[in-house]
């Protein structure tokens, strides 16, 4: 089978290689006002790079077309009198697929006597026009940057303030647990969109279910984010599915060591702007079992994403979008008892998971200065996990059970209105209906005798109302001020959270910023239904975990392709759930055994995270780019006694990244592209609590000394990643070969400690996860 596959690929390449004429492609786009519905006619479009310069102007509807653009990488400059110019950086034009961009321009406050305004660079600012902080993520970067491996969650690990391990893609922002991050799709909070989510990392997983074939450019927020974002403490990953092509039918197929995927997009009919887009992927890790942890053999997953774009004239714009995944993993006992060394050797575990989110979005413009956007969506996520141990009599004895299904119904609507050039307001309401059906049971050290921790089904709601205003005070000062409120009907808890951010461009290419926000987040629903021995729910009144977050920022652009950002910050968390009389705090949750918390929790803990993030980036020019980031921080917490401060689980103290890459245009007509990217990360080692050797020997399992939690740590992590790709461009088709390697240095991840039955010792469980994705993709 593989031999035929290789012959087929080389056959395709040999046929395509007979076309030696230079290949061209079409670049299309629209230009409109950022805060309104008005298209900008006759704007100037200049495309430059790759030793070519081309230009055109938009038509009366703000549309433009650049035909016969040579294959390569370009910058696009957009300008029009009375508006701030915009630069779109690093735009890739390739064979087999037209390029489409949307440009939003801001009215300039400059009067005729003032100096020309410097252009906005799209990579420096978020897509969200009501936000002053955050960063726009290019999905193309997820394929190009080493260490990203087509995964947006792994891509952000290159940014300052973010740390991550190798074995999962959980995003740790400024010392906060991954579970404090909110995932959003098309404005809707969705369940963790990763394969094998919440198994080893609450908030993370193994691989993303969001293919870069369908994702559009998205925003990543850390720290004090605007009022429209609620139920998040550390950050927000605000993602969008791009619009399919409405001019031509285009397809892609990729085959690699992590599986097979296929994508298709195109118009419904000629002359109609509507389009479809979908991507399906199936994967099995059995081919890589020799390079993955022992329990990864037999793991498989699949996912589907789609977007249907349906403009309806004066009735507005409709879109139907969705994402879903199905996973299966597990382990079986080692049949030879003489080989038993750890508990995992006699463990039988089966894990089935699925997740889905589907929404209908409608946007209608009210005049030229206002719009209403509404979405109705439903999300579902389920995990069915049971774990057993093989006893001495060859019977499987239950160890624990997790069965939960969360079905959410979401309705949201916002009204955005521009009041002249100075003031734009967005006000909205969001209702989330929470239907739950969950069962948790654990043997708690007595294998075979399960104790029920939670068994509940029902319905509750989370209501959010917000309003925020963007004020533009001349060309130098912008301010976002807002307020958001949440109400959790299960226990009648609520929060009211102010938000403020200011950005001052005090000199050409320099700015200062300040941001403050109060934020809050619910715990996972199962913890609210923990029962004691009398079947009484002891945690139902648990409040939101809350935080005040303050940050300062300094930005400098010493050149068009250089950017420096320095951002010190301070975060104070309070009402953190803790177990009275212990050092346990919910902000240290990771996964695995953390499902089975049977103690009473109270909102009496605190935590502080403070530090400084530094980024120096060179955007791609002449094929070369790099980014260096450094984060120095401290993350500590205390429990209900308000006494000793402890290191949190995620307190690595420092993280340094150096990423660089180069692209070369090769071939007779310089239309093929060879790309290489490398990344090196050095960050503080994993933390763990000291082992109580005496109790561990007595109970024959790893017992931690929790009087000094997370006081031990391993040596600093040194990680290296590599991406190499070669793209062959032809008139109507492109081929790409890629090798994307994560952890080429073979760093061993830490998974906890385990008891060795042979040696009667406790050992750190560490394994090297080397993730290679060798792939071939064809676009046609």
UniProtKB/TrEMBL annotation:
GO cellular-component term (any): cell outer membrane
Cross-referenced Pfam families: CarbopepD_reg_2 (PF13715)
Domain of life (superkingdom): Bacteria
Alphabetic keyword roster: Cell outer membrane, Membrane, Signal, Transmembrane, Transmembrane beta strand, Transport
Signal sequence annotation: 1-21
Keyword Oxidoreductase on entry: no
Subcellular location(s) per record: Cell outer membrane
MF terms (GO), sorted A to Z: siderophore uptake transmembrane transporter activity
Stored SUPFAM superfamilies: Carboxypeptidase regulatory domain-like (SSF49464), Porins (SSF56935)
GO terms classed as biological process: siderophore transmembrane transport
Membrane topology summary: Multi-pass membrane protein
PANTHER family per the UniProt record, alphabetical: HEMOGLOBIN AND HEMOGLOBIN-HAPTOGLOBIN-BINDING PROTEIN 1-RELATED, TONB-DEPENDENT OUTER MEMBRANE RECEPTOR
Name used for this protein in its record: Prevent-host-death protein
